[in-house]
Amino acid sequence: MIYDAPVKDMMFLVDEWLGMDKINAVPGHEDLDSDVLQFILEEAGKFCSNELLPINREGDEHGVIFDNGVVRTPPGFKEAYDALVAGGWTGIDADPEYGGQGLPKLVQYLIDEMLGACNLAFKLYAELSHAAYHLLANSASEELRKRFIPKMVAGTWSGTMCLSEPHCGSDLSLIKSRAKLNDDGTYQVTGAKIFVTSGDHDLTENIIHLVLARIAGAPAGTRGISLFAVPKILLNDDGSLGAENRVVTASIEHKMGIRGSATCALNFDQATGYLIGEENRGLSTMFRMMNMERITIGIQGLGLAEIAYQNARHYALERTQGKAPAPRPDDRKESDPIIFHPEVQRMLLSIRSQVEGARAMAVFACHHVDLMGKSADEGVRNHAADTVALFTPIIKSFLSDLGVSSTQIAQQVFGGHGYVREHGMEQLFRDSRITTIYEGTNEIQALDLVSRKLTGRVGECADRLFQSWETLFEEHRDSIDSVEPAETALIRLRDATEWIRKKLEADEGLALGAAKNYQRLFSLTAVACFWVDIVVSIREKSGTFYATKRKTARFYMQHVLPETEALHKVITTGSDSLADFSVEDFSH
Amino acid sequence: MIYDAPVKDMMFLVDEWLGMDKINAVPGHEDLDSDVLQFILEEAGKFCSNELLPINREGDEHGVIFDNGVVRTPPGFKEAYDALVAGGWTGIDADPEYGGQGLPKLVQYLIDEMLGACNLAFKLYAELSHAAYHLLANSASEELRKRFIPKMVAGTWSGTMCLSEPHCGSDLSLIKSRAKLNDDGTYQVTGAKIFVTSGDHDLTENIIHLVLARIAGAPAGTRGISLFAVPKILLNDDGSLGAENRVVTASIEHKMGIRGSATCALNFDQATGYLIGEENRGLSTMFRMMNMERITIGIQGLGLAEIAYQNARHYALERTQGKAPAPRPDDRKESDPIIFHPEVQRMLLSIRSQVEGARAMAVFACHHVDLMGKSADEGVRNHAADTVALFTPIIKSFLSDLGVSSTQIAQQVFGGHGYVREHGMEQLFRDSRITTIYEGTNEIQALDLVSRKLTGRVGECADRLFQSWETLFEEHRDSIDSVEPAETALIRLRDATEWIRKKLEADEGLALGAAKNYQRLFSLTAVACFWVDIVVSIREKSGTFYATKRKTARFYMQHVLPETEALHKVITTGSDSLADFSVEDFSH
């Protein structure tokens, strides 16, 4: 399996399309220049290709071992983790105050793409720590921040999110885990948590679990849930490691993919925990972290689509089979490389045109994460927060769906050789498959988009975005041929948006039944608009790279975007046939 | 995991929609009545649910073991295979002359759906024998038929197809295996074959390999390939088992799914083989068998979609999570079964509406397989053969794609619980994934449809079929509301067909680049037409079953069929952006 980090495309998007001036306008990132950024990305790419990709298949074959209550990661994971720590890759966007490198989150996300591409199972050990770091940095008391964060940024400790319980995953209002205040201000946390990513492992000295539980007497539902930091190993007063806390790994899951990642069931039995933030406000704190994590998960899908594309392209250039249609490259040969078959080119381009467009959308959204957190201007921060709120379910669902569809198409290019484990293509699919499920299934993302992001402040933000695209189209309609299809798609999206808004008021169930189709219509249209913006930005440029960008944009418009026509129709005319069915109809 | 064989729907399609009179009009099947058919299907369903489903997950977890040159099937497979043999399930449609039951192939296909649903890995051991039986019965000399066939029909011997070699799969013109005539009229067969399903195992006393190889001096390419029967164990003159033949199992593949099925690499080293049919005509003989097998593989996908649907529906009725939109079933409860969420209903119906429509299409095509082989009227036989030729790539690709998409949707309904192996949902996907690849990838099917099935006699057959649907629409336009969308789709299909036919003459590459999209447009439209035909056939019927059929048809028209609009557009307007790309563009 090969991987060549797409640094060129990333640099094009950040340096040329977005512009380094936009990055430098964010306080704290004034000095980042494009040479340094390129160096960082190239080094990250090398680390991923050289250290993580080679242990990816062995990690899948070997899996995580659970033996006598101890979790052991696959061969090579510990060495790779130590190299990750030594390279400073655990603190890319972390605050220098805690030992981080203070780089933009955008840079973190770009590197996340590479990590996810080369070894998703491995990446998750660092990823959840990173998410936990942000939560603690934003919401924990100063004392907790000082005790926990520097070790997490350094990577010597890691973190988890403990949300799901056997009877609840998507619906956290049903959480039963409970907490009781001790005399010293700490809590006793008790409950059974499942699906805890990196819940136990042998890579770090300690693990800080972030656990949702109810304090005795708390209200029912989502408003009675608090958040606790529960270390695997308790700390002595001087910060050194003390006794084991009362957290037991009950089992690990045997999964379809990411088999090198330890997904644990943890039992907390009067474990000592520290309240984070206010009582009963834990869910909203956790959701801020989950939202950032949702973007990262979309990026994972993007990375897997990219590596799948690279390997399918490589195979298609090498593997000869059948004669291509005329004019054949060499008529004397028995067979041609399969890339000469138009169907194979179509398959490859369907991945590529979506990956490059989706990466632009991700760069846009991730830059707004930086603006949201750090801009000096409150108006900019608010607008950025709304933009991020709008794009979070889009990035999570569209990019992870793209990972799943792309790894499948790439596997198909390999034919029977894609079905055997040897080439690694089937693993890419199995690993990518989790991304459409965890941190809220893509259907949950679609419901979030439809029921919470189309009205109020975020809804207004969507309208402004639509208007900005219309302005763009207006300006370039005569010179850029991608404008026409994108404009048509945008008209459909606006119409479907109005349909959803009306139904939300009149008959919510109908709007919710259209959620996933609407999410896809929004995503495909948005990517088309970003493609137009890219083509506009390079309209004066010549050379192969830019010519290929223009061709790829055109392919997207002709081959991918037409689905929006069908989606619009299903959304606006399909609700009555769905409403025809009652639950009873499913019993026969 | 649950499975309730869809006997009711099968009986509806065969007995009511197609009509037993059509079955009875085929020579040899005059006496089959609907009570007997229903009894057979129910017994087959019980066998699959009770004997095969319970060993499906263990077969996946344990896999096939290759130890010291010996292949061992998973626990329970031998016992289940003995029960399959004892029940007479290996000779359903085989000729009574050889000990078969002489039932229609249509019945075989219906039972194939159940077998594929409950344990695809297991099914393959009998399936390839069954295909080999048909090939030998049609093409082998009387002597070979007498020696081999009765044991294969009884199931005490099995069969394989040995086609692929390391350097060739889709393109069999590149085959290198060779054969040399012995003095006694037998041949010495030498070569390396890969991807041999059931190439070795411990279920039967002997295995008859059907091997493609070149006789010394044969022409290059596809016209120099002959077909040989090569037994694993040689026969003595009295037909008893003698010495081992020179066939060695080199290895077994480690695969994404169907892990209980032995996919072998076999080395033939001057193995004794018997020529089947004429020299150098082996490929066309093998292709007749492969075409029947392609239909079976589509049916496998259909079965997997059905069992995925049943389990997702079951889970959705049981699992409570979140509050459904108003009116909620019971406002006092904390959460509702997830089937009350419109999005979940939509997911389930997208499977169901395609499965039921696709099953009708399969029944139609499989009935034509019977007509093609047995009708007393030559005109009927020829028309049936053309119909089967047209529908073979459609059934193979659309139904296997449906298996893949449906198992994925059903897995998604389970959320995180679908990703862990425990519930078996992820196995359904992994198993189904091979069906879009083996016996010619679905892209190869699409190329077959576009380049060989739209012109000449089969092309005329397609036009007649389109006309028959138009006549149906004409008659019922005013009374059946599904006519309008189906008619619109058919207009698009006819237009795209003309586009393809023109491009085939003018610029073949453009037609081939539209192949997969065209295959899907054809399939979705055909299913819509079959749905209309069903709705017409039950227009006077009342009761829940028929009412649900009508609602399901309507859902299909509103939610599934609109994709044809996008496909038509991509086919007819997308060829230039694909043609923009040259192979060089893929090197950067």
Question: Please, could you describe this protein's structure?
Answer:
By secondary structure, chain A is of the alpha+beta class. Among the domains of chain A are: 7-139, Acyl-CoA dehydrogenase/oxidase, N-terminal domain (Butyryl-Coa Dehydrogenase, subunit A, domain 1), CATH 1.10.540.10; 159-280, Beta Barrel (Butyryl-CoA Dehydrogenase, subunit A, domain 2), CATH 2.40.110.20; 442-574. The first copy, chain A, is built from 19 helices and eleven strands. The first copy, chain A, has a five-stranded mixed β-barrel with strand order 4-5-11-7-6. A two-stranded antiparallel sheet of chain A has the order 1-2. In chain A, strand 1 (65-67) and strand 2 (70-72) form a beta hairpin. In chain A, 59% of the residues are buried. The mean pLDDT of chain A is 97. At the A-B interface, helix 7, helix 8, helix 9, helix 10 and helix 11 of A face helix 7, helix 8, helix 9, helix 10 and helix 11 of B.
Furnish the topology, listing elements before pairings.
The structure is a homodimer of 588-residue chains.
Chain A: H1 7-24, H2 34-52, H3 56-62, E1 65-67, E2 70-72, H4 77-86, H5 105-139, H6 142-154, E3 157-162, E4 178-181, E5 187-197, E6 206-215, E7 226-231, E8 233-235, E9 241-244, E10 247-252, E11 263-276, H7 282-318, H8 342-374, H9 378-413, H10 416-419, H11 425-433, H12 442-452, H13 456-476, H14 483-506, H15 508-513, H16 515-537, H17 544-560, H18 563-573, H19 575-579
Parallel strand pairs in A: 3-6, 4-6
Antiparallel strand pairs in A: 1-2, 4-5, 5-11, 6-7, 7-11, 8-9, 10-11
Helix pairs in contact in A: 1-2, 1-8, 2-5, 5-6, 5-7, 5-8, 7-8, 7-9, 7-11, 8-9, 8-16, 8-17, 9-11, 9-12, 9-13, 9-16, 12-16, 13-14, 13-16, 14-16, 14-18, 16-17, 16-18
